[in-house]
Amino acid sequence: MYARSAYYQSGGAFGFRDQLQDSLASKYVSEDMLKKQIIKHSKHQFEEGDVEHWWHDETKRGIRTRFSDDLLWLVYSVCEYIEFTGDFSILDYETPYIVGSVLGIGEDERYDIHEEGELKESIYKHCIKAIEKSLEFGENGLPKIGSRRLE
Q1: How close are the terminal C-alpha atoms of the chain, in Å?
Q2: What is the pLDDT of residue 9?
Q3: Residue 80: exposed, middle, or buried by beta-carbon count in 10 A (0-12, 13-18, 19+)?
Q4: Where are the alpha helices (DSSP H) in the chain?
Q5: Which of 10, 48, 90, 127 is the most exposed place for a label (fewest CB within 10 A)?
Q6: Domains held by the chain: number
Q7: Structural domain contains residue 4
Q8: The model's pTM
Q9: Which residues does the chain have with pLDDT short of 50?
Q10: Burial (CB count <10 Å: 0-12, 13-18, 19+), residue 47
């Protein structure tokens, strides 16, 4: 959580999925650490519901991708937090979204500057947007997973 150094993130970037996964274990030591990670990560969700896969706080630069699981880690972490603590008030906490150009057809990812937008909503609404964004199904009725490429 503090080192943030992996072969694909050697520059110390925050990973949306990675840090939320790590913070889930921290709830046994510090419920507040999990809560702070949830709040921090909610601020790296785009108004459209998707999230930065990873980012650097110092530069406001991060990578927007089509990964289908990152955004749902916010929802899962919030559910785990509430189940563990009984604290539903986190759902009312308001945080801003970030704004950035939507990925174009055939574009899998883009590293760019993503500024804080004007829209600010509750963690509950952030979770709803994540779920709605994830509801993309294939012709067989199963949810699409991985990096959803648009041709």
Answers
A1: 36
A2: 59
A3: middle
A4: 16-26, 31-42, 70-85, 123-134
A5: 10
A6: 1
A7: no
A8: 0.90
A9: 151
A10: middle
